[in-house]
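Observation: inputs received (chain + pyridoxal-5'-phosphate).
Thought: call the complex predictor directly.
Action: predict_structure
Action Input:
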Amino acid sequence: MWSMIIKMSVETPVNDFISKYEKSGFARFHMPGHKGRILHGLENKDITEIKGADYLYEADGIIDKSEELTAGLFGAGKTLYSTEGSSLSIKTMLGIIKSCRKDRENRMLVAAPRNVHKAFIDGCCLLDIDVAWVYPKQSSAQICSSSVTAEDIRRTIENCDRIPDAVYITSPDYLGNMADIKGISRVCKKYGIPFLVDNAQGAYLKFLDRSLHPLDLGADMCVDSAHKTLPVYTGGGYLHISESAPQQWICSAKEIMSLFASTSPSYLIMGSLDKCCGELQGGLPEKIRSCAFRVRKSADVIASFGWDVFNNEPLKLTIFSEKSGYSGDELAELLRKYKIECEYSDPSCVVLMCSPYNDEEDFQRLESAFGEIPILSSKDICNIEDIPEAKVKMPIREAYFSCHKRMPAEQAVGRICTRAAVSCQPSIPVVVPGEEITVEIMKILKRYSIFYVDVL
Ligand SMILES: Cc1ncc(COP(=O)(O)O)c(C=O)c1O
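Observation:
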């Protein structure tokens, strides 16, 4: 009986503190300036680091407790909350490797497939890291996706003139491809290389019937944007460090995160991470499993109308629209007529992200829309063959901080890029600082509507 009560009780230490403070009647002679008076809606819960509220980057109270509960749910040795998304956690992850590496003679080198998020490039720029790009044998015509295999990683490591300080991959990628994390982890272990995963899109993967979370498949560290797939305010994320990782990583993690972060972390975001932790202790995992089942059903229904549906990642539906006579952007526009807003569209596809907070009506609306939109004859989209190998001319940081000017991409062929050229979504660089802009790159820039670039 007692064990049942204990099992059912949910701990949310950050929210408990905030609720208590809300009710305490204290006059707020501290930040923020709204003093808890309602203007936008949540001011009463938006506090700062007052007595008892702990400090995110020196946590030993309620935040530490909440992070510990979350670490327990994910099976991590340590989980850090981020109030600045995976973007902050990615830089922190790279910073941890940089500060704990033993090799002080060579520049830091990370092996990574090309479909990295811009935050990775920013981290390389800030920390002066070189990248050994991994070009999968089965190359991709999409900047956001990569079909990287364990063999591709092994080949890249073998071809490097020194053993990389880390292997870094993005999985799931923006289109919902999941990499062979187990296989890649085995390769990394063989060479003694830390294995880092950008799991921004996959926080929920832990809670499926069989966990597909990177920590369970052999990653040494990973980042999750909790806000992308779990009920967390925008900006809430995790940095997970595995139980088997060196203690030194855990000891340095908070300090390094604070190097890149604001000194005023949002309690609204921390409160939502804490609340989500409570939900995950309760019924949310079951809801995630049911949702994965419901998404599969929608995938089957939409495919039965003749659409090309990809549902490799359980809560994501990617519709490749070319064969049905539409560009992805045109299809996204048609979906808006049915009051459906997608996560992402580009010339070839539409990406739909689902969560347990989509209700049955949402799924039915989606299915009806695809049932009603007529399938036309195949359309020729301005497709690119493959993502070409980069011509690296100088380190990322050196190029970034060089004198530069902005010019039309079409006139920049042969010049060296100084800023990552990314389209707003999916924020994956077509060209990285220090690389030459070639004719092929210029075509890809055009395809993603990037018309200006910064060059040396
Ligand atoms: C693969 C990937 N990594 C990192 C990020 C950055 O995450 P955040 O927006 O939480 O900072 C994103 C955001 O879309 C992403 O898709």
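Thought: report the result.
Final Answer: The first strand starts at residue 78 and ends at 82. Confidence is low (pLDDT under 50) at residues 1-6.
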